[in-house]
């Protein structure tokens, strides 16, 4: 076909079928738009096929494995519990396939047209799509770019996806690493460190920072738990080079004479937006200095009829961000006022125990000039945590001392990832301390820890010893 000879007419075309893309497609269809969704690989994108879902299969399996090894304490006896990584990989693929078929069914039910192929802009209202020998041209009223990102390893490290692994390849291992080196200090690095530690790997973390990026209280507890699990942490250094030698990976550290030797190296890579080869330079869509597509609160690019969402835009490369942006873009295209606001974006890590945060950390609140009051409740004093045998961690709340408004909520411990939604909702509603103290909390439950964290602000927590005025002033 000659370019321009015939163009198929479409209302909305979305490039990329990840969580942002398919949420945008279905929301737009709900609002009466005729939608075509183009995906060059697998529907569900990186999140479903290489990222979020595969990694959480690993972390959930690790948590289940550890829990099963402790069942004798509650009267459940078994001769032995073994871990089989190959069987886990088979389970992972079944799960991914089921979820992918579910997305296809949802798209079909909403009359979203699915096309396979690589898409690129020909002009501000035309897209070309290649799929093997087939080539088609589509004219659109609106378009959404949802092409995601790819992992980019730091200088000196080249993943071979066999022994030097990135976030896409580590979830496909079928041989358990004997000695796993983990490079990074973000949530992905922590999740992989804890998961493979549970499976029996000897794990060493290398991080270029002096500390983790969570609230200071969580960082202290996290370091204690890492030490308890015999996960070694080497801080404030970079890996200058890494190479394989037979069944070993040799790692050189900056300003360190001795090398590290492991059987595998996992690198928590820097996400690079997938903006190459889609023709945005041809039509003049503006990008940031870092290569991300510039968007406003409605996810609109410098071309009013073209929107961008997810990892191709600035901000944390998280599915929750892409999903919100996808719905926002779809609604904006339909003429509904909508905006994506990420002030209270929840940050979670499926570690052992899990971590969840929303809002300002203690140090961020102080740096922004707030005079703060804080309440913290240890799960070791929570009855349901005792029943579960998961007493590590705490719940911490941070308030503005002047107007009693909630500024941040930080948790490490069982149930944290589910419970953080209460924190996000409270932050969005500008909750005061009394708004957390007034409701009823189910008993027994981890939820009661949130109540007692709020009660600790006023020295009212029942399951904490009284703190004298003198002791409060020290804090």
TrEMBL record:
Enzyme class: oxidoreductase
Keyword Nucleus on entry: no
Protein name as it appears in the record: Dihydrolipoyl dehydrogenase
GO terms for MF: dihydrolipoyl dehydrogenase (NADH) activity
Chief site of localization: cytoplasm
Domain (Pyridine nucleotide-disulphide oxidoreductase dimerisation) ranges: 346-453
Subcellular location: Cytoplasm
């Amino acid at each position: 076909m000659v370019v321009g000879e015939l163009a198929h007419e479409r209302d909305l075309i979305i490039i990329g079928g990840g969580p942002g893309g398919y949420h945008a497609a279905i929301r737009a269809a709900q609002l009466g738009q005729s939608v075509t969704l183009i995906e060059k690989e697998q529907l569900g994108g990186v999140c479903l096929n290489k990222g979020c879902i595969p990694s959480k299969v690993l972390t959930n399996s690790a948590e289940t494995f550890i829990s099963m090894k402790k069942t004798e304490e509650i009267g459940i006896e078994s001769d032995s519990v073994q871990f089989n990584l190959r069987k886990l990989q088979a389970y992972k693929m079944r799960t991914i396939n089921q979820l992918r078929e579910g997305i296809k069914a949802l798209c079909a039910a909403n009359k979203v047209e699915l096309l396979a192929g690589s898409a690129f802009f020909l002009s501000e209202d035309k897209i070309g799509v290649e799929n093997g020998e087939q080539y088609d041209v589509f004219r659109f009223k609106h378009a959404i770019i949802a092409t995601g990102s790819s992992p980019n390893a730091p200088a000196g490290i080249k993943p071979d996806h066999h022994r030097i692994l990135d976030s896409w390849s580590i979830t496909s291992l079928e041989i358990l690493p004997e000695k796993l080196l983990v490079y990074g200090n973000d949530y992905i690095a922590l999740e992989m460190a804890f998961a493979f530690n549970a499976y029996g790997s000897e794990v060493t973390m290398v991080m270029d920072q002096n500390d983790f990026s969570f609230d200071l209280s969580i960082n202290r507890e996290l370091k204690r738990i890492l030490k308890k699990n015999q996960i070694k942490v080497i801080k404030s250094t970079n890996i200058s080079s890494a190479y394989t030698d037979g069944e070993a990976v040799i790692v050189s550290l900056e300003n360190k004479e001795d090398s590290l030797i492991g059987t595998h190296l996992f690198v928590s890579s820097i996400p690079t937006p997938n903006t190459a080869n889609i023709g945005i330079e041809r039509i003049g869509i503006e990008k940031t200095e870092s290569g991300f597509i510039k968007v406003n609160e409605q996810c609109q690019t410098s071309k009013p009829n073209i929107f961008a969402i997810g990892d191709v835009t600035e901000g944390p490369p998280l599915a929750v961000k892409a999903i919100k942006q996808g719905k926002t873009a779809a609604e904006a295209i339909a003429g509904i006022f909508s905006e994506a606001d990420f002030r209270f974006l929840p940050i979670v890590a499926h570690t052992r125990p899990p971590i969840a945060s929303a809002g300002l950390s203690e140090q961020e609140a102080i740096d922004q000039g707030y005079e703060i009051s804080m309440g913290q409740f240890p799960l070791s004093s929570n009855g349901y945590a005792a029943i579960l045998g998961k007493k590590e961690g705490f719940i911490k709340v941070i308030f503005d001392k002047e107007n009693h408004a909630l500024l941040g909520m930080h948790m490490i411990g069982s149930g944290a990832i589910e419970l953080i939604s209460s924190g996000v909702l409270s932050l969005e509603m500008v909750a005061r301390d009394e708004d957390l103290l007034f409701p009823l909390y189910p008993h027994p439950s981890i939820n009661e820890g949130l109540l007692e964290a709020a009660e600790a602000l006023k020295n009212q927590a029942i399951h904490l010893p009284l703190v004298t005025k003198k002791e409060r002033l020290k804090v």
